[in-house]
UniProtKB/TrEMBL annotation, chain A:
InterPro entries for this protein: ATP_synth_csu_bac/chlpt, ATP_synth_F0_csu, ATP_synth_F0_csu_DDCD_BS, ATP_synth_F0_csu_sf, ATPase_proteolipid_c-like_dom, F/V-ATP_Csub_sf
UniProt GO molecular function: lipid binding; proton transmembrane transporter activity
Gene3D superfamilies: F1F0 ATP synthase subunit C
Subcellular location: Cell membrane
PROSITE patterns named in the record: ATPASE_C (PS00605)
UniProt similarity note: Belongs to the ATPase C chain family.
GO BP annotation list: proton motive force-driven ATP synthesis
CDD domains, A to Z: ATP-synt_Fo_c (cd18121)
Annotated Gene Ontology cellular component terms: plasma membrane; proton-transporting ATP synthase complex; proton-transporting two-sector ATPase complex, proton-transporting domain
UniProt domain V-ATPase proteolipid subunit C-like: residue ranges: 26-87
Protein name as annotated: Unannotated protein
Free-text function comment from the UniProt entry: F(1)F(0) ATP synthase produces ATP from ADP in the presence of a proton or sodium gradient. F-type ATPases consist of two structural domains, F(1) containing the extramembraneous catalytic core and F(0) containing the membrane proton channel, linked together by a central stalk and a peripheral stalk. During catalysis, ATP synthesis in the catalytic domain of F(1) is coupled via a rotary mechanism of the central stalk subunits to proton translocation.
Membrane topology qualifier: Multi-pass membrane protein
Automatic annotation (TrEMBL), chain C:
UniProt-annotated location(s): Membrane
CDD domains found in the cross-reference section: ATP-synt_Fo_a_6 (cd00310)
HAMAP family the record matches: ATP_synth_a_bact (MF_01393)
Isomerase among keywords: no
Pfam families (UniProt xref): ATP-synt_A (PF00119)
Similarity-based family: Belongs to the ATPase A chain family.
Gene3D superfamilies hit by this protein: ATP synthase, F0 complex, subunit A
InterPro entries in the cross-refs: ATP_synth_F0_asu (IPR000568), ATP_synth_F0_asu_AS (IPR023011), ATP_synth_F0_asu_bact/mt (IPR045083), F0_ATP_A_sf (IPR035908)
Name of the protein: Unannotated protein
Membrane topology, as annotated: Multi-pass membrane protein
Swiss-Prot/TrEMBL keywords: ATP synthesis, CF(0), Hydrogen ion transport, Ion transport, Membrane, Transmembrane, Transmembrane helix, Transport
Amino acid sequence: MSILAQATEVAVDKATAQAIAGATNAGMAYGLAAIGPGIGIGYLVGQSVQAMARQPEAAGMVRTTMFLGIAFTEALALIGFVVFILLKFV
Amino acid sequence: MLALVNVFAEAAATDVNQAVAEATAKNPILPVMNEMFWTLVFFAILWALMKFVLLPPVMRTFKERADKVRDDQLAAEAADTARVDRLEQYEAGLAGARSEAVKLIEQARAEGDAERRVQVGAAEADVASLRTEAAAEIAGAKERARGELTSSITDIAVGAAEAVVQKSIDRSAQVRVVEDHVAQAGKN
Amino acid sequence: MIFGLEFPPIENLVEWPNWFGPKDSFYGFNKIAFISLVAIVATSVLFILGNRKRSMVPKGAQNLVESSVAFIRDGIVLETMGPDGMRYLPYLVSLFFFILIGNIFEVIPFFHMPANARMAGPAVLALITWAYYIAVGLKHQGPKYFINAIAPPGVPKALYILVVPIEFLSTFIVRPFSLAVRLFANMLAGHILLVTFSVLCITLFTASLLALVLPLSFFMLVALTGFEVMVAFLQAYIFTILAAVYIGSSMHAEH
């Protein structure tokens, strides 16, 4: 907020304004994109651990499926990260 | 804060197209031609190498190992069957030998029994002959003793009777009486 | 710029000048291409060493080669495709090693650059995988593959209006895209993370009071390096297993 306040005072040029907007939106985009996958992966791994604890003989299969699930869930967060890079650096 | 950001965004939007056109040259996200080209070339080389040169020996080793494990397993199973067979043979031989031994023992026992029976029979025959001899001897001795006894008793009895009646008595009649008596006594 | 912390622009982190070849030519050979070359050479050397003296009881390089191949065979191929998928083992093994070695350069001194933090590598590999599983589908199911993939049987007729576009998008657009973006974004994020902590360590290496924070920052750098080794392996595994799942789903019509 303070940075933004300063920015309004010194009457920034358009490139700086774009950079500031990009950085702010980038942070917000990544932060929002990380919420869902964070919950999802936590739930997924928790359930997998429970499954492995209940049936240790099925641990290999559960682990493979868990990694697949993590890969699919994580993709959302990673797309958020790509959006972050696009907004911040491009 | 969002409103403020939007103000900036709108301010920036006017020459955003220009900025994007400028940025595409150094966009860190987009793939670059030369890197794509080399990755494609090198990956294709690695794939071909892996398919035709690098992986087949490994798979052959896996196969050889699996075959060896299977062969060894089969050999072990065959050896186990052979062992069981040999054990059965041995046990069968053992049982044969044992029955043979039992048979021999039985035979020996039978022979022994027969021998003993023969010996016992001979001994019993001996004993019987000895006993008959002894019995004959005893009978002879008894006869003799009775004869002696008869004559002496007759003498005594005749003498005693002569002494009682004071006259001679027919000896022959007395002898008959005594003999009868003695014979009766011998019977009783 | 905060407290004299000067973060380098991202172009300096991921873009490398050509070692030879003109600037914007399609055959300019730079660090990324060199890492890809090393991936071939290292893999070949490893396999040749492993295959040189083959024995029933593996040891040394042979052990490493055999356990990696057995890992891919048992953990990926048999798990996702069954015994029918053994013919795709060479592709998956080369994929695994290519990605793993490209990733592991993230933590190798004097390189410190994962080849897959550039979109080129993941994009090419994802496109090859995309073409490969479509080819496998056409080979196993004929032209009916597209119908089977887009319109799975057993769905109420009215729903096909909804299902067909979704299936088309997810099978032919989202799959390669997410495959490439997953690998690329993971490696780029790890790279930026390591750069951030390295820059922090260098900046804190002063005679001021800030040097007190330096041990924490350095510890984070070391810990994250270990973490990135794990991520490098995990991403190679995930890319390979997803490629196997996609190829496996092309082999048989969905039921």
